[in-house]
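Module 6 notes. Inverse folding takes a fixed backbone as the condition and produces residue identities as the prediction. Think of it as a translation problem where the source language is geometry and the target language is the twenty amino acids. Below is one complete input and output pair. Work through it position by position during the lab.
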């Protein structure tokens, strides 16, 4: 019985992966954006998918994803919104370095 259930679980997982690909949605916990906040910054801006089309933006310090501290976290309804917000956090730093 357990083997049958595990086989069914694999089928469901495969169906979910196909559906996510069709919808353009990343898997739960997938890092879809990461960049340092600045050239000498100890913190990074990270966007992590929630698996249902949304994402959370994190400001982290340390070795993401294995050993880090979260300084700030904000959820967004879409992955694009989260990535755009992440870009806005690092863009001023990039622009000021160019001048």
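Target side of the pair, the amino acids:
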């Amino acid at each position: 019985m357990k083997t049958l259930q595990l086989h069914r679980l694999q089928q469901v997982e495969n169906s979910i992966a196909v559906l996510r690909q069709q919808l353009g949605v990343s898997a739960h916990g997938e890092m879809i954006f990461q960049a340092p906040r600045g050239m000498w910054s100890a913190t990074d801006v990270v966007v992590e998918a929630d698996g249902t089309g949304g994402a959370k933006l994190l400001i982290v310090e340390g070795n993401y994803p294995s050993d880090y501290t979260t300084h700030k976290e904000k959820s967004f309804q879409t992955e694009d919104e989260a990535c755009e917000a992440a870009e806005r956090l690092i863009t001023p730093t990039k622009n000021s370095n160019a001048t």
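Reference fact for the lab report: Residues 25-98 form one domain.
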